[in-house]
Automatic annotation (TrEMBL):
Name of this protein: SSD domain-containing protein
Subcellular location: Membrane
Primary localisation category: membrane
One GO cellular component, as annotated: membrane
SUPFAM superfamilies tied to this protein: Multidrug efflux transporter AcrB transmembrane domain (SSF82866)
InterPro entries per the UniProt record, alphabetical: Dispatched_Hh_regulator, HMGCR/SNAP/NPC1-like_SSD, SSD
A molecular function GO annotation: transmembrane transporter activity
Keywords: Glycoprotein, Membrane, Transmembrane, Transmembrane helix
Region of interest called Disordered, as start-end residue ranges on this chain: 128-147, 180-206
Segments passing through the bilayer: 222-240, 527-550, 557-580, 592-613, 639-660, 666-692, 753-770, 1024-1046, 1053-1075, 1081-1099, 1120-1143, 1155-1179, 1191-1210
The family this protein is said to belong to: Belongs to the dispatched family.
Amino acid sequence: MRRFQEEDDHDNVQGLFPPAFDPQFDVEAISGISNLGVPPEILAALQGMGNQATAEDPGAMMAAIIKMQQGIMETIESMEDTTEEDSFNPADIFAGMAHLSGGTGQSFGSPNAAYSPEVVHGANFTNDSSKNESETPAYCSPNDFNSGMEVQSGPMEVQSDPGADMVEVNLADLEVPSGGKQNVYCPPHESATKPPPRPQHPTPTQEEPLEFVKLVIRFPRLIFGCIFSFCLVITVALYVKVLSKGNPFSALGKELDLHDIRSVQYDSLRMAVYETAVARNEMRTSSVVPPRQSEVAESTYWVFEAQNEQNVFADPQSIASMKDTFDIFLQDEDFQEYCVLNPEAECTPPLSPLRMYYASSWDSTKVQFVIDDLKDPKNVEKINSLGWCYAYGQNCDKAPANPRQQDIDFVKRLNEDVNNIMASWDMRGDLIADYNQATELAAYLMETDIFKPAVDFGYDKGFSTENLASKYSRGIVFWGSPLEKNKDGTSEKNRRKDVITGSYLDDMNARTEEQSYYFMKILIDDAILGIIVTDAMWAVVSLTLIFVWIRFSTGSFFLACAGFSEILFSITVSWFVFSVGFEIEYFPPQNALAFFIVAAIGADDIFIFFDAYNDSKHEPHILVDLETRMSWVYRKTGTSMFVTSATTSVAFAFSLISPLPSVQSFGLFTAMVICLDYVLVMSLFCTAVVIYHDRFEDRSQYGCCYPCNEIVPSNTTKAMQAWQTSSADEDTKRPFVSHFFQTKVAPFIKSRINAAALAAVFGFWLYIAAQSAVRLETTQQAEQFLGNDHPIQKSFSILNNEFPAAEDDVRLKVFYAWGVGEVDRDGVDLLREPNNYGKPTFEDSFDFSKQCQTDLATFCSTLRNDPAYEDSIKRKNGVGEINCFIEELAAYSVLGNLDDCSYVQSGQWKKEDWQVDPADLPRIMEAFLDEKSCFDENGRQTIGARYSSELGWDGSTMRYAAISAQTEVLTPFGVYPESVTRKEYDQFADIADSLGQTVSRSCQTPVIMSDLDRKFVFMNNQAIYAKTAVQNSIFGVIIAFLVLLLKTRVFHIALFASMTISSVLTSCVGVMVMLGWELGTIESILVGILSGFSIDYIVHLAHEYECSEGDPNKRIAETFGALGTSLFNGALTSMVASLPLIIFCELQFFKKFGIFFLLTISFSWLFANFAFMTLLAQAKIPVERSGWKQLGVLTICTFIGFSIGVRQIYVWTRQQ
């Protein structure tokens, strides 16, 4: 027999036999086929078919015919290897079958035979040679197939025409014994227009109904009510236990890696400072307290931007507008009770250039003399070289040797003139007439080292003698402490906050309309919380859009409410278990992202479950009863959603490997929410669908007004009746989207030409995206947490980017401490106890000896005066700004007081025997702490207040000693790129490793270097975020690969899915770079969750493809038909829900998440449907489960190749 060389030939032959027909032929005519050379095995099968045709039982006859068909094909296959070539042609059977009906032109099969567009069923063949060859090829509609057709000898094919409902009929490699070419034609048949009736008793499924489903069918309302009530009770309990206590989110900026050196040193110093201060205050017996409102407790920063011109000092109106801002406070008599008071008990004027423009007196002539002097570059050079020494008596060792006396006199005279001019800068006068002269004076004073600190604070980077214009200006209003005590015992912080919000905040907000921006540390948390609440309202809008689309897709308010409740309950119940059950108190703001993630995944699951329920109407073998039907739905969707939910949950739970509690909390909480969402879909929503089936289906148009009694007959019975009376086309027709994907997209991606075009498009895009993605770098600018136009963000951005470093700027303090031990972390669990960072420890070996004191003083002097540290340490009055209590302690030891500040500041005490015997410390420290510091500009700050963090005196013992230096670049309130902060950190760490070791030897303890504003901790967090983003992306792909491999044991499905997920990752990161994003904190978090969030659609399709039956082409069509609508609805819902976040949210975290959400959903859906499915369609690899050993070898080889490939792509793209 001729062998079938191709699978398509085999299918074409099999397709010629109808799965069910009612033959009307003469059994005796079978003997007429024997002369055609048909083997006896085939004849026996045909004889059996003829015998069954006379049976009275139509069902038995149909079964016999199907069995006969299968027997013929098995016989043909078994004869392939034993029959000689060309000794038997299967076409002989089909040609001879014409005799079964008595000749030509009569139907072989019933006109009602089932039709498939893929194959030809029930055809009748003749040897009529009277047909014209020009009629080849013929096209036959489904209704024409059983009306008789002719065949031709020679090679022919059976294939689908791309046009409408017509099939081009040619039989592949079949030869007609009569010889000669004959045309194929399908004359119309009058009975073909009638819809074929269905069998009244289809074979039921052999699977037993699930016990849970049987229980749900029996008591749907009871079970639904119990589940709903239970979730509702848990939600109420969540409110009582967690939400009613105030803001449920943990404070921002508290997270750290417990074991990182930066975190250890930060907590060690922070807790040591606190414990020592508490002990010192408890031990103190002195009644001396700082003068009322003598210290700065809070500051209000104001930033001004030019409205029309490029100069805020261009006209009187602009200057007056800035003055009006400060008058909010200065013109209020009550402000006297909260401002910082000068020695005359008057409010200190704001730090602002307006002090000059509103001077109480202005000598234009003297000012012009000064300007003229400074216009000469030689005079400026004299001032800069001699000024500090001969005007202030400082840094004389740096002054030129033997200067001319006339130069010295010039410097002294000019210094006196400038000081006289500045003496009236008190902001108590009217706007000076010649305000442009004041602007010019400020520009020339900034050319000098000794006068620059008086004016440089209020002008931007572009201001100079060549450009007398400043687009921006700034000022600070100071709030004093300690306040006068009140009777109700309210803390100073709350009193200050109450008066600001009650008396000034409205006027402050009104000023922002005139391009004036402010921020206060005391208000920033409330402002951010208010923004979060506002953005959360837009999140509610997003969730509402999801509800609306669920209602539209299901056509039922009841199901929409049930589905939406399921999504909300997955959040509230998970939150309760998370916070109360697991006792996890750390709940960071990024956990709010779980709301959107579960909304997207939950909506997908709802659509998949409900679409499967609708599809069950077309499965007659399960329409026996509702139990069987819902069990089929449960099995079909349960496994699919379990695989996707498990994969996504594991991907998020992988975040537990991160050392940061915020990442751990987010990953664990989101994984719990996704798991519970799956449980509630399979329980609460499943029960809701049963209730919908019993009471609401086909009544949705009536709403709630229609009686909700049970529908009789049931909708399952109606579905069975509809199937029995419908045609095949009517029965298999799916919803529009699924039908489109099944009938249009599936054939489209099966075409090699179309697949090549898709490969070119995706390949080109991935090339561009990969080149963009590899350029992703950590951010080099201060990170933004609000939009560019928000007043708070405006103030931060302008302060960080538009002003030079001024001597009046407050910079970050970096501490060097000796005597502090590493914090004890035993028993610390930040997830359960977010405020327990450990216990402070002190080094028992710390020795505050005279040599230790000497080395500390040397350390201070070196940092203050060594030019090597000018780029690291902020300069003020020509020297480094250092907080060194040992210098004032030394002067106090010599003089017994600090009345002579010139003696202290000049360092004359160094010539004396100043070291303090440690045994004398208890005697002198009490009075020393109450002395006024000589380094305080106002002369009112006490030693205890100025050195509260540096002085480790606990009332009886010197527990530690610390020196602090202000950085040149970093500020306490700025958010800087990791690279900028690390550069500063490395510089100060080098100081600890070099200079600090000398002090360590004499004080007999190692040095701890840290700041107290968490900048170095945050720097490490940024690095962890970036590392976690890469780790989670890689492991997300690996997890998806392994889960699919373990579930399906089909290697190529898992491999193709992983490749598609990698493509989605590449695309999203590439677009991030194209949008100008850099890898900051927000971006790192988003990339970290990308892999866990992008796998949903791909895993759904992969699982459905594996579970489908048939060859790859049939699996593709079935997968699209089953999931096309569900995934489209899920994607569309998520994309629409992201729009309010993108358009309206002010927090960059939510806005960028919205953009990221949209990108991830879009790319996931596109790549899943058009890349992943195309790979499966073109590969045509049979779905065969592999052995574990084979899978292991393939997996190892894949990982090795993947690693090498990724590295080579990265190197190549970087070279490009």
